[in-house]
TrEMBL record:
PANTHER family: MECHANOSENSITIVE CHANNEL MSCK, POTASSIUM CHANNEL RELATED. The chain crosses the membrane at residues 31-48, 69-89, 95-115. Residues 188-270 form the Mechanosensitive ion channel MscS C-terminal domain. This is Mechanosensitive ion channel. Belongs to the MscS (TC 1.A.23) family. Residues 114-180 form the Mechanosensitive ion channel MscS domain. It comes from Nibrella viscosa. SUPFAM superfamilies: Mechanosensitive channel protein MscS (YggB), C-terminal domain (SSF82689), Mechanosensitive channel protein MscS (YggB), transmembrane region (SSF82861), Sm-like ribonucleoproteins (SSF50182). Coiled coil: none annotated. InterPro entries: LSM_dom_sf, MS_channel_C, MscS-like_channel, MscS_beta-dom_sf, MscS_channel_2nd, MscS_channel_C_sf, MscS_channel_TM-2. It is a multi-pass membrane protein. It comes from the Bacteria. Its main location: membrane.
Length: 283
C-alpha cells in the first residue's frame, strides 16, 4: 500500500458516517477532535494547578486565593471547551441558540433557583468574603467551610456533619464569619443562684473558673455581671473571650462543670423553679 492509498484509507475512516440526524452527521474525525479538546483542557487545568501549588509553596499566594483562582479558571475552561466541542461536532452555537430560544426561556424559568445558586457561587469566589477554612454561621448552624462549588458550599458542623448549603442562601441571608474578626470573640454563660447567696463570692468563683481554663483569653479579662432578679434566682452572666470559636461549646461545657463543682464546695445553691401553694379551707 503506497502513501496515496494509505491517505485515502485514513480519510475514509475519519469521514466514515457513524450517525446521521437530519443535516447533522457524526464521524470519527469529530469524535477525535472532541477527545483532543477534553484532553488538552485537562492538561491545561493540571498545569495551572501545579503553577498555583508552586506559588503557595513560595508563599506568594495563600491557599484560599489559590483555590478561588483555580475554581474560576476551571469553570471558564469548561465553558470554552464545551463551546469548542460543539463547534467541532459541526453544531453552530448561534443557530442552536436561535432555534431553541423559547426552550431556554422555559428552562430558565424552571431552573431559576439553580441559576441563582450558580451566580451566587461566582460572587462568593470573586468577592472572597467567605473562603475555604472560614468558620461561619448560617441561620443557627455554625461550621467550617470545606469547599465552595458553583452551586453549593460544603460546611462541616461542630457535630462533624457535612452540610451542603445553596450559595444563594449565603448571599441573600445574614451570615456571620467568625474568621474575619480581628480580635477574639466574646461568649457568655448565664447561671442562677439562690437569693441568699453571697454575691461577691459567686462573682469570684465565676472569675476563678474562667481564669483557670486554658482556652479562655486572659486579655481582655473575663467579667461577671448581675443581669436580673428572676423569680427563683439571681441571674449572673460570665463574659469571656476565646480563640476557640469552632469548639466553643466544649469550652462552655468545661466551665459549667467547673462552676457546679466550685458552687458545691462553697455551699452556693443553684435553685430550681418552685411555687408555694396555699390551700384555704372553710370551717
Amino acid at each position: 500500500m503506497n502513501d496515496t492509498q494509505l491517505q485515502e484509507t485514513l480519510n475514509q475512516f475519519l469521514n466514515y458516517e457513524l450517525l446521521r440526524l437530519g443535516s447533522f452527521k457524526l464521524t470519527p474525525k469529530e469524535l477525535i477532535a472532541v477527545v483532543l479538546i477534553v484532553l488538552i483542557t485537562r492538561a491545561i487545568l493540571w498545569t495551572f494547578r501545579r503553577f498555583l501549588t508552586r506559588q503557595e509553596k513560595r508563599r506568594k499566594l495563600d491557599s484560599s486565593s489559590a483555590y478561588t483562582f483555580y475554581q474560576l479558571f476551571k469553570y471558564l475552561a469548561f465553558v470554552i471547551a464545551f463551546g469548542m466541542s460543539l463547534e467541532a461536532l459541526g453544531i453552530q452555537l448561534n443557530i442552536l441558540l436561535a432555534s431553541t430560544a423559547a426552550l431556554f426561556v422555559g428552562i430558565g424559568l424552571g431552573l431559576q433557583h439553580l441559576f441563582d445558586d450558580f451566580i451566587s457561587g461566582i460572587i462568593i469566589l470573586i468577592d472572597r468574603t467567605i473562603k475555604v477554612g472560614d468558620i461561619i454561621q448560617v441561620e443557627n448552624t455554625v461550621g467550617r467551610v470545606i469547599s465552595i462549588r458553583m452551586r453549593l458550599t460544603e460546611v462541616e458542623s461542630r457535630d462533624h456533619i457535612h452540610l451542603l448549603i445553596p450559595n444563594s442562601l449565603i448571599t441573600s441571608n445574614k451570615v456571620v464569619n467568625y474568621t474575619h474578626q480581628t480580635a477574639q470573640t466574646r461568649f457568655d454563660i448565664v447561671v442562677g443562684v439562690a437569693y441568699d447567696s453571697d454575691t461577691d463570692l459567686v462573682k469570684q468563683i465565676l472569675l476563678d473558673c474562667a481564669h483557670a481554663h486554658s482556652q479562655v483569653v486572659k486579655d481582655p479579662p473575663p467579667q461577671v455581671w448581675l443581669i436580673d432578679f428572676a423569680d427563683s434566682a439571681l441571674q449572673f452572666r460570665l463574659l469571656f473571650y476565646s480563640d476557640e470559636v469552632f469548639r466553643i461549646e466544649r469550652v462552655r461545657s468545661d466551665l459549667r462543670y467547673m462552676i457546679v463543682e466550685r458552687f458545691r464546695q462553697r455551699g452556693i445553691t443553684i435553685p430550681f423553679p418552685q411555687r408555694d401553694v396555699y390551700i384555704k379551707t372553710q370551717s
